[in-house]
Please model this.
Amino acid sequence: MQGYFEIITDHDLAQAQALLAASGLSLPAGRTYGLGFYEDGHLAACGFLAGTVLCGICVAAHAREGGLATSILSRLVLHGRQEGASHFFIFTKASEAQKFGASGFDLVASTQDAALLEQGRPNYADWLTATRDALRHHGWEPAADAPPSTGLSSPARLGAIVMNANPFTRGHDYLARTAAAACEKLLVFVVEEDVSVFPFAVRFDLVRKGLADVDNILVLPAGPYMVSRASFPAYFTADAKVGAVHAALDCAIFATRIAKDLGINTRFVGTEPLDPVTAAYNAAMAAVFEKYGIELREIPRLQTAGQAISASKVRALFRGDVSGAAWQEMAQLLPPVTLDFLRSADSARIRQKLRDHVGRH
Model:
């Protein structure tokens, strides 16, 4: 097929958007690199990288017999490797999973609508080994194949929470401590995707320190398999329209791989009165987990002055001109570990980042 490959510039995004729309797709959020195949100046195929996630791979109907999808895919992987990546995900329609499997990608999980595949190392098996090793290091022998739960009144043998904690609030603290009281052991996974205003290293440290006095809690990094740009991209874009599809896939990964492999039988979440994407996530968990015998326990959000405690409220306060009154209000929303961090010089960059860009979650 005659034509040429070229990096997609902002000037050509309208063509890419039209090409994707014809196949029921949209421009990938968070894209960091785009490659197109052009015929006489017209875009006939495209593909994108969002970090290490390959997405938006699409070929015009008239050009689908020439192996363009495979060529786009291999060139995107080559570019990623040149940038230092060794592991890649593909988030795609479920109907396309087999095609990418033939190109050397392994299926992580799928739903009726979407699939997540991966290639390279470290992969899911490596993440699972590292997580099991962390459990053993703390004297927690990881189980396998958790039995179905037997109702809300029964204690969870091994429970889990996944939290972003941007930043760690009294609400997060309350959720974890309430869940821990209902568990023999509780794993608190902190979202590792580093696209929030508070960096992962800071969020992880605040959660770990804030819950250090609870003996049956172990705080762990979530890796790329829970609430990441690969498993749940809509979480970071607040796109409620596609949030349900992404949420269902993230839940399927947790139910069919993570919970099964670690022996988790209960997932705890806070009720969500404010954010439609997170509310859709909770609904997806309830639907998916029931099929696999995993119990979902919703814990009412902690409130202050009649309002649910919100990390976004903390960010809004910290972004402004922090006065005595603002610090007093934040003291009602934050545990001492987070309040102390915000008062320290280490938080200056985060405050500036908040002022430059309004972050989510």
User: Anything to note?
Assistant: Residues 52 and 88 are 5 Å apart (CA to CA). Residues 146-154 have pLDDT under 50 and may be disordered. The radius of gyration is 22 Å. The longest helix spans residues 240-262.
